[in-house]
Amino acid sequence: MKKWTFMWLALLLVIVTGCSQEAGAGVSSPSTIQKVMDKKKLVIGTSSGYFPFEMKDKEGKFVGYDMDLGKAIADALKVEVEFKDYSDFGGLIPALQTGDIDMVISGMTIRGDRALAVSFSDPYYSSGQVLMVPKKDSTTQSWKELDQPGKKIAVGQGSTGALLAKQLFKNATIMDFDGFTNAALAVKQAQADALVFDEPGVRVFEIMNADSVRGVYEVLSTENLGIALPLNDQATIQWVNSFLASYRNGLDDQISVNKWFKSSEWINQVQQQ
Question: Which of 97, 108, 132, 222 would staple 128 via disulfide (CB 3.0–4.6 Å)?
C-alpha cells in the first residue's frame, strides 16, 4: 500500500510540474513545490516549545509530531529538510510571505484572518482551547470564574488562545508572552492566574509540572491545525493535500500519534524550560 501511495505522489509531482511549466511564459512563477524540488531542500518554519508538536531534544535536535510530519513530506519529495525556528510565533507568517521558509508546520490553527495572508492545507490535527491554572488554585472549573478585575490571564502572543482570551475575558487582564513556554512558566511561577492554550500542550505541561499546575479541561473552543503555505499557490496546496490524505490514514502517522500523544516516555528526552 505504501508503495502505491508514493507512486501516486510521484505522479502528482509530474502533473504539478507540467501544469506549472505550461501556465504560460512570464505569466506564472514556479510553485513552491517545484522550487523545493529544484533546490532539493524543504525549509519548514516552526516555533519550538509547543509540546508535543515541536520541541528540541537534549542534543538540540527538533522532535515532535509536527517534526515527523515535516520529515515525511521531505521524504515524499526526496529532498533534504531544514527546520527554521522562530521564537516569536507571530513571525512565522511574515517569514512565509517573504520566502524565508517554504511552509509553516507549527501547530497553527486554521483561521480566517490568517487565510487572508497565507493558504492552508486541509486539517492534519483537531484540537481545542482549555485553561491551565496554578496547582494551588483547587477550585476554578470555568473561565467565567476568572473573569474579574485583578485576575491575570497569560497567553502566547499571536496564538489562537490569545485571540480567544481577548474575546472572552472582559474584566481580567490579558498578559501577552513570547510563546507558549513563557506563558506557561508565568502560571507555574504564580505570576498569572491562568493560561489559555491548546489542550495537547496543556496536558503535556501538566504531566511535566504536576506539582505546580493543573489543567481545567472545559473546552473553550475547537479548531483544526493546518500547514500554512504561500497564498494561492494552488499547485503546492494540491500536492500537500494529496499527501495528507494518504499520510493521515497510514502507519507512519499512527506511530507518530502513539509516540507523542499516547505515551509520556519521551518527556525526559526533551528540553524542559
Answer: 222
